[in-house]
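Lab notebook, bench 4. We co-purified these components, and the gel suggests they stay together. Before we commit to crystallization screens, I want a quick structural picture of the whole thing.
Request: model the full complex, all chains together.
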Amino acid sequence: MKIKKSRDEIIFNVIVYPVIALLTLACLIPFWLIVAASFTDNSAIMIDGYKLLPSRWSINAYRYIFAAPMDILRSYGVTIFITVVGTFSGLFLITMAGYVLNRKDFKYRNKISFYIYFTTLFSGGMIPSYILMVSVLNLQNNYLSVILAGLMSPFLIILMRNFMKSIPDALIEAAKIDGAGDFKIFTSIVIHLAGPAIATVGLFLALGYWNNWYTPMLYLTKPKMYPLQYYLYNILTAQQSAQQAGVIVEGMDTFPGEAIKMAMAVVATGPILLLYPYVQKYFVRGITIGAVKG
Amino acid sequence: MKVAKKLLPILLALTMLLTTLAACGDSGNGSSSSTPQSSSGNGEGTGSNGGEAPSGTSAVDTSEQVNLVVYTFAGASPRDMDMVNQAASEITLESINATVDVQVMADWGTRYNLALTSGEPIDLIWTAMWYSYQPYAFDGAWLDITNLVDEVAPALKTIIGEDRWEISKIAGSNYAIPSSKNTWNQWGVTWREDLRKKYDLPEIVDWETMEAYAEGILENEPGMIPYCDSPSGGLWHSFSEKNHYYVGLGNPQFSYGLGVSTDDPYNLFVFHETEEFKDFLITQRRWVENGYVQPDVANSTDQGPTGMLSGKYAGYLSGLTSAVLSSVIVPARDSHPDWEIGYMNYGEMFQWTYLSHPTMMGFALPSACPNPERTLLFVQELLSNNDLFQLYDMGIEGTHYEIDENGYYVSINDPINPGYLQGSSGLTNYIYNGDAKVYSEDYQWVLDYEKNHMEPYEVTNYFEGFAEDYTAYNALVTAISEVNTQYFWPLLRGAVADVDAGLADLLQKLASAGRQEVVDNVIQQYHAYLEAMGVPKV
Amino acid sequence: MKAATSGKKHGFLYDLKTNRVMWLMILPVLIFFFIFSYIPMAGVYLAFTRFSHSTGLFGSPFVGLENFRILFNQGTLGYLTKNTILYNIAFIGIGNVLQVTVAILLSRLNSKYFKKTTQSIMFLPYFVSYVIVAAFSYALFNSGTGIVTMFFRNLGMDGFAPYAMPGIWKYIIVIVYLWKNIGYGTVIYLAAITNISDEYYEAAQIDGATVMQQIRYITIPLLVPTFIILLLLAIGGILRGQFELFYQLVGNQGQLFTATDILDTYVFRTLRVKFDVGLGTAAGLYQSLFGFILIMVVNWLVKRKHEEYALF
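Here is the predicted assembly.
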């Protein structure tokens, strides 16, 4: 339904479009520099700095990273595995939790919310967690440690709960009167209506897993188990440490240090960027499409 | 979409199942049983099972097979580490009935302390004086092996040398395995000899000539920066050598501002107040202002070797001799054959060198070590069994390296993605079997340099072995360290414009942080330490 | 299940029975947090011990508030707390306002293509690791060829050398933080906006409301719950900082510390000198307590005015 554009709308557009465009440019340029630098000869980066177009073209950095295709494919696989398993499991559990915490007839919901939230305030620190994972649960060198460490986030649970507030209680009441069980209400009604929420939380979970190198560093000691971020980080330190130990490394001069850092960033980010537009449609909508029809 | 949502629980159940299966298969037994994925076979290259079983084995009960976990420091894990571990385990199973799992601790910043504090079962772990080896010793983190060595692996004493074991003692006990290798850990300066000759600049023999070279570069090669400095102080690391006294006392290094000379070992003085220190600060500041080094070195990510090779820098204030060889001299031969690389170690420049203390960096047994006897036997084996040592040093012959007709080490690794480079386990640089070590042909240059240019100027290293017990005044040490981070290091890097004011600030802040009390304590402990070693008063 | 008859237990067991499906649905979460958060929480005890390897984790002597005394005596705790809180207020406050604004503006634009593209691009900074940010910032701010440095020098400020000027870094740090998180935060608000029924807007348009009026009277009020929740969630961590951000940008440039040091970076440095479990945990406990008291107060205040907006 198109109503003729009123004057204030035009003014609005005239101001807002350029402002947003400027902001977007500010976000784009650094990333562009990274991509450009990844295709630049390393010496050129050192001397000329970061430029929008490679001052001297070179794919050396990528050659280094992909020199062992099996290894890098494996680390991609590891990351995908961890991300998929973690995201699906976590999303399922978090969505259920958000739903339950919203049900007005669930008397303990505030206490449980506090129980969950409290864990963000107090923590025993790294050491008890490390002992728990490694010594007590014996999960060193087991992917489960990384998956579990990122599975639940109080932030996301509360966020989910909040998004679900917009689902009218009337719907749920009606379903209950119809005799539907709590889980059935969840699967048939709530999930369908919480599209944007699920997409958002799922995205954040997935990003968390994808970018995470900290828990793999702690709990995975076998190089073959490294996920992508950590695998790339190792490539960089391998040559540097050989240099420091005084070991002669063939082809050291062509080791593209700065360019490799940039190429690593591109390689690590690429796949997730492809996933993003797919998820995006859930929360960027036009004003002509409604969310909850009455 | 609806169908997908129904499938979700099923998917979930499946993944949970898969994960549980994965859990069963992969439970962390620190195994050397993981099969290597790379193409070549396993362990065939090692051939014989090595030499004699070292004496003393009979004293230890080796009826039960154990797995030894060793953590080393080397930056990143070599691709074929597992392969080498497997081959090595075949040898050790025979001799001491133990498999070995050597792992490179890539992220020692976080994991090291975690692992030690949480009592993770580790048998042997690397340690360094610059990484709290001594405080940990006082704190009980290391196993006291003084008597254990005599009981279980007395050959270690003879191989490494009784004297090294003696001077490695802290408060009468041995907490680490001393290194048997002679290492010279002093820094130096590297430059482009071809450019120096081209512009007829004086030979580099001291600070003035270093400056002359820098001036020459600035004039004749616009855009090039003369030296790539290091945030740890490239020029600062020549201060000791220039003035013939050691300034590294303190936790962390340099923090108390104490200097001690080898001519007068009992005399500790505060070098902050000396003329030469002021002179150094002024020089460093001048270097920064004139552009001899890159600006804001604390935040610069430029590394000397890559910087030089890229052509951005005409030199760098470098580290070890061996590092210069491997990271600049050899690569430059291929990429820039017309270049000539000049190098001079500060020790040679100022004719004052010293060998690193045997426990400057090495290995210790954590107090929670599950198999101390077997671990010592393993170390003994490494040092006496040449095959085992060479395995960990160079990898598998035929897969990772070859010995050429002159007896030199030649790497046959894939240059871009090496499987196992020499020394990449981090183990063999410190547990060093001199008989078995094979150098590459290029390395001869380092050996010659050390022999001809470092050895002649050697002074006895009394100072590095000093272990300060600061548990009584821990808080002061931390406070002083903070003051240094804020006031000392910027000065040192030439980042403070007004050197006089900066120095005055530093002294005043250190005084109010309680430096005097710390210094008094240190002097007392240091004198006791010297006396215990039998150092004569001059 | 027992039939609910007797007095005290009536509530809980009865609830378990009637709502057992819901309890079951939330049980995994409860168990998870119990194992992975509450059990390790016992480690807080370490803050009151003087840890030593010889006595181990469970045998170290109890020293009461000694560690806290040490922390407070350094004298630095005061300005560290101030820095941390001020930075966080800037991050949370300015950050959220910016993100809400961008989300609202985006949602009102007509071109779907423009919206999707700009929103995706705004997400890119999130993927740029702080290590690279550090490299870029050196390229911008170094006193030799730094782009920003040259810019100001050309304007006549000859002595402009960012790494020696503590004063400007608060702006740099805040801007970098905003830049990095803009995409991430906008997503949340966009998702909340899609929940607003279009009928409101259509009705308002028919009534002749302008764009700004629609935003002011429909969008903003309906976004307030999300805004408040995000604020509340952030407040609990007011003394914790973006460690990576500060560590990479400032590094070891000691001259800048008075203006840029936060509690996390300070503790990190101290632990580097000597890894003291007791001290580290004590610092963490201080952060936790501070945040805890703050959130309890703020949440209670919010609860009094709008029950549903509260966190718990």
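Chain A is about 70% helix and 0% strand. Worth comparing against the SEC data before the next meeting. Chain A touches chain B through 60 residues (CB under 8 Å).
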